[in-house]
Structures are given as C-alpha cells and as structure tokens.
C-alpha cells in the first residue's frame, strides 16, 4: 500500500475537481481530508506510472505532492537544519552583509548549499571575511535580521505534545541555534562556534567543524540514546550538507531545498510552510497545537 499526500502551498487552496480527477485516475482509496481545501491524503495499491509528470504539474500550481510507502505515522524524533529551514535567513550571510562583504559571501553560500563547493572549506573562507568585526554584530543580526520560518512553532508544539523529541542541528553558529531553539522549543541544539578574542571576531571557526557528517552522527546518536529507531525519525533541511541525514532517517524531507538537494531527496516540500511536515506524518489540522 502507498499513500499520496497533496498539500497546497502557503496562501493557496486545493482545486477539488483536480483532486477528484487525481483520485480517480490513480484508482485511489479511502480519501481523508487533512485540512479543508488545504491538504488531503488517499491510499493507492501501487506507484502510479505517471507520478513524476503529475508531480511536476502540481508543482506548477504551487501544490506539493508526495508519495509514502504504507500509511503515514507521527515521528518520535525531529532533527532540523536551521538556516533556510527553521529560519528564513542564512545567518552567515546576514553577518557578512552587516560587515560589508555580503555580496561575495552570499555567492559562496549559494554554491556550497547546492553542493558545488566543499562545505567546510567554504565555511572557513566565508568566516575569514568577518575578521576584526566586533562580536556585537552577532546579537545585532539576531535582533534585527532573523525571522522564524512560518509554521515552526506549530510543528514543534504538535510533535512535542505527542511525545516527540527535537534537535536543531546547524552548520551555522551557536548564538543563533541557541536563540532559535529557545524561541521554538527544541530540546537540544548543535552548531559551530565562532572564535572571539577581546570582543572581536578573529575570522575563524572552532575545530572540529560541524558539517554533514556531524548531522548524520547526531541522528544516529539520538536514536541510540533515546532507544528510538531511525525509522521513527524525521529530518528536514534545504542544503547539500543535510543530504546524509535526510537519507538515513525514516522520513527525510527537503524543505524548500536547493535544486541539487530537492533532486536527491525522496520527499519534498517546496511550497508549503513547516506545518506541511505534520501533514506528511498524517496529522489533521484539528490536531495542530498552535504555540
């Protein structure tokens, strides 16, 4: 058995006639409305031959279509990337912008997140451009530039109410992960440390750098520590350094993923907000906890 889940993008509604046609064409069974005019799911006996073409057509209308083997189920652990996933910005890009080197750093970030550059080398190169900046720009960026991705508080609160555990893992920096974890209610957070001397950034990151291998390791460690199998874990991210963790957990979702990441991920949310991750677990909107 398979389950098709159709989710309208933010600010959009599902076309009921188009949903009915999809259901009939695919010989669907047992349709469930997860949210009126926003999300539905139905079961299938097989993977449709035209799934890729249908996926592309729905994408053009701002709708996410995903196919699961079996029935969706609430995950017991959430491991989430931060930049571009739980927040709307790349924290290093914002630091660079405030330091006057934003154009160059943003270009390197985009290439690194799409897998075109080695993550650790690119991180060191970008951080080097922050040398001699006052450490106070970190808190300034947090207070003036950082905004939470829509739906994050509801995602965390709903999973926590249902017994879920959550970890924020980032190649970004601990002042940001600490702030975001506190705002959203993560149980733990992990990030890199910018080296500061005499209240000035020296342009370096503490070793060892936490990259894609660290993210995968944290997933494996949480599974062992909490005695919860990886199959009951959800991981979400948008960058190339997230792919390893997306591939080892039960549900790894590219959330507004960079092209190379979206192409490699099994499940994708390109148009919805973070509450879409609840629909992928089979939650109905009436089950959401609005924090």
Description:
The protein is of the alpha/beta class. The protein folds into 2 domains: 1-72, Alpha-Beta Plaits (2-Layer Sandwich), CATH 3.30.70; 75-291, Rossmann fold (3-Layer(aba) Sandwich). The protein has helices spanning 16-25, 51-60, 91-99, 102-113, 119-128, 136-144, 152-161, 174-184, 212-226, 243-248, 259-264, 276-279, and strands spanning 2-8, 29-35, 39-44, 63-69, 77-80, 165-173, 188-192, 194-197, 200-205, 233-237, 251-255, 267-269. The strands form 3 sheets. It has a 6-stranded parallel β-sheet, sandwiched between helices. Helix 3 (91-99) crosses helix 6 (136-144) and helix 4 packs antiparallel against helix 5. The model has no long low-confidence stretch (mean pLDDT 96).
Brief rundown of the structure:
The mean pLDDT is 96. The protein contains twelve helices and twelve strands.
**Oligomer designation:** single chain
SSE succession: EHEEHEEHHHHHEHEEEHEHEHEH
Tell me the Rg in angstroms: 20 Å
| Main β sheet profile | 6 strands, parallel
Model regions low in confidence, pLDDT < 50 over at least 5 residues: none
Give the arrangement of secondary structure elements.
Blueprint: E1 2-8, H1 16-25, E2 29-35, E3 39-44, H2 51-60, E4 63-69, E5 77-80, H3 91-99, H4 102-113, H5 119-128, H6 136-144, H7 152-161, E6 165-173, H8 174-184, E7 188-192, E8 194-197, E9 200-205, H9 212-226, E10 233-237, H10 243-248, E11 251-255, H11 259-264, E12 267-269, H12 276-279
Helix pairs in contact: 3-4, 3-6, 4-5
């Amino acid at each position: 058995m398979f389950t098709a889940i159709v989710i309208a993008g933010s600010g959009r509604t599902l076309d009921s006639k188009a949903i009915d046609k999809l259901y009939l064409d695919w010989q669907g069974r047992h349709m469930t409305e997860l949210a009126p005019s926003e999300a539905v799911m139905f079961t299938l006996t097989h993977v449709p031959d035209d799934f890729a073409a249908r996926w592309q057509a729905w994408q053009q209308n701002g709708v996410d279509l995903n196919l699961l083997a079996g029935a969706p189920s609430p995950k017991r652990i959430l491991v989430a990337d931060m930049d571009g996933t739980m927040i709307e910005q790349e924290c290093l890009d914002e630091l660079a912008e405030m330091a006057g080197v934003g154009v160059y750093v943003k270009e390197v970030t985009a290439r690194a997140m799409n897998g075109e550059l080695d993550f650790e080398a690119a991180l060191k190169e970008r951080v080097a451009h922050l040398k001699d900046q006052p450490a106070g720009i970190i808190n300034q960026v947090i207070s003036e530039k950082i905004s939470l991705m829509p739906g994050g508080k509801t995602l965390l609160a709903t999973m926590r109410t249902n017994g879920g555990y959550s970890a924020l893992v980032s190649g970004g920096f601990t002042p940001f992960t600490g702030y975001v974890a506190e705002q959203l209610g993560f149980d733990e957070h992990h990030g890199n440390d910018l080296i500061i001397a005499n209240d000035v950034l020296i342009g370096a990151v503490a070793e060892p750098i936490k990259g894609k291998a660290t993210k995968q390791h944290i997933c494996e460690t949480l599974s062992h520590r909490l005695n919860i199998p990886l199959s009951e874990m959800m991981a979400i991210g948008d960058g190339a350094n997230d792919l390893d963790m997306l591939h080892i957990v039960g549900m790894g979702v590219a959330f507004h993923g960079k092209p190379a990441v979206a192409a490699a991920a099994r499940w994708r949310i390109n148009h919805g907000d973070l509450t879409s991750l609840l629909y992928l677990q089979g939650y109905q909107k009436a089950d959401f906890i609005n924090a």
